[in-house]
Amino acid sequence: MVDEAILDKYRKAGRVCAEAAAFGRTIAKPGTTMLDLGTRIEKFIVDKGVGLSFPVNLSLDDCAAHYSPGIDDKSVLPEKGLLKIDVGTQVDGYIADHAITIDVGSNGGVYQKLIDAAAAALDVVVKNFYTGENVIHIGKLVEETIVKAGFTPIRNLGGHNLEQYNLHGGVFVPNTGSGYPYVLKEGDIFAVEPFSTTGTGYVVDGSTWMIYRFNKRPRHQVNMQVATTLELIRKQFNTLPFSPRWLIGKMPRERIMPTIKELASKDSLQYYPLLMERGKGLVAQMEHTIIVHKDRSEVTTVI
Ligand code: MN
Ligand code: MN
Q1: Burial (CB count within 10 angstroms: exposed 0-12, middle 13-18, buried 19+), residue 40
Q2: pLDDT above 70 for 142
């Protein structure tokens, strides 16, 4: 049973998500600060009356995902770099997840080729993402496309189904031809994200993290001092990922990071480490959110 009113919320989230990434492209230049880029993209979304489903990810070069500017982030876009802008929006918890990759400084060469490979893989996915298709076959198409372009797909990253207020519904769409089978059915919502790299094709956890999430089942109790912040986080962000930046103005600025660290140490918050390419290869990513229909796909993350 496909509820059109719900699909319309996915569509609205998707359109604003695509607009936000396109806006990001216009301001992502050498010298732009990550903090400025991130906050302006997020503001663009909120100003359209749409919610964020995760902090904007601005991952550079061999960082494949999960870099989101910190409160006092001073980093600046370089003259040469591969920047993934991964944006998440939501309308009443119905999510859009969308990523583009930018050749910062327009250096062409391998930078542009990696982007083209991920984009070609995503194109193939969009053409084949309909009822009856198996996600293993989708992964095989991604792998073939990226290998044909002379690069390697990232094997331990991939697409995922979306549910209300849930970014990763439990079905995985591999970027290779191996994984758990799942046959697409009408009304399924998926984010699909081919990654191409010059490296090994595996990501490993980095030693820092900038994105957190409320944990519904913590192992420890927290003290009264930080419990108020935890309740604020739960109310504001539900179980969706958030950035400490989003607490600015809601509590004393100097208390934000100590409180978050305390909550994370008590397991009340989960955190997302940076995902780094194991061989330090350059990484490109392209991602769309798709509604599965009978014999066709509908991309929500388009303008
Ligand atoms: Mn994404
Ligand atoms: Mn995703």
Answers
A1: middle
A2: yes
User: What tokens does 58 get?
Assistant: 């601005």
Q: Of the bound ligands, which one is closest to the alpha carbon of residue 99?
A: 1
Say how far apart CA 54 and CA 213 lie, in whole Å: 9
Handedness of CA 268, 250, 16, 62 (dihedral sign): negative
CA dihedral sign, ordered 50, 55, 60, 63: negative
pTM of the prediction?
0.96
Q: What mean pLDDT comes out for the span 107-112?
A: 98
Residue 2 confidence (pLDDT) above 90: no
User: At 272, phi and psi to the nearest 5?
Assistant: -115, 105
- pLDDT category at 139 given cuts 50, 70, 90 is very high
Can you give the pLDDT at residue 221? 82
Specify which residues 104 forms β-bridges with. Answer: 81
Q: Are residues 93 and 190 in the same domain?
A: yes
Q: How many A from CA of 300 to the centre of ligand 2?
A: 13
Question: Average pLDDT of 151-171?
Answer: 96
Please give the residue range of the domain that contains residue 231.
209-274
pLDDT at 1: 62
- Catalytic amino acids? 86, 97, 160, 168, 193, 287
- Which CATH number covers residue 49? 3.90.230.10
How many folded domains does the chain comprise?
2
Q: How many angstroms separate the alpha carbon of residue 192 from the centre of ligand 2?
A: 7
How far is the centre of ligand 2, averaged over its atoms, from the C-alpha of 34 (Å)?
20
